[in-house]
Structures are given as C-alpha cells and as structure tokens.
Specification:
Helix content is 49%, strand content 12%. The protein is globular and about 25 Å long. It is built from 3 helices and 2 strands; from the N terminus they run H-H-H-E-E. The longest helix has 13 residues. Strand 1 and strand 2 form a beta hairpin.
Length: 68
C-alpha cells in the first residue's frame, strides 16, 4: 500500500494546522520519487482513508487531514 509514500505525506499532514488539498501537500513535500502530482497524493490518501487513517473532506477541492 505504498507505505513509504504515505509516511512522507503523513508527515506533512501531521505538521499542518488545518486540512490541506492534494496540491498544497505536494507543494510542501520535498522532491520525492513517486510523488510527482496532486493526483498521486490523492490516490495514496484515498487508499489510506479506506483504512480510517485519513479523513477526506468533500468539497472543491477535496481536503485531507489525519484521523486522530
């Protein structure tokens, strides 16, 4: 389940004071192999949301936060 990618993204979300969009998350990530588009960020987070690790806030655009 792309654990390495999720851990990188999770670090960004853990530091955030509010829910972030996939584009905002991507801009806060350092150059990371495999994470090169907002679509990739959303795909990884969507998979982890199914496990209850991430909350997806519906809207335009979607926003993401850790389920704590």
């Amino acid at each position: 389940m792309h654990t390495h990618e999720y851990e990188r993204i999770r670090g960004v979300l853990a530091d955030a004071e509010e829910p972030l969009t996939a584009r905002e998350i991507l801009s806060l990530l350092e150059e990371t192999e495999g994470i090169d588009s907002p679509h990739r960020v959303a795909t990884v987070l969507g998979r982890w949301a199914k496990r209850g690790e991430v909350d997806v806030i519906a809207g335009r655009p979607y926003r993401y936060e850790l389920n704590t």
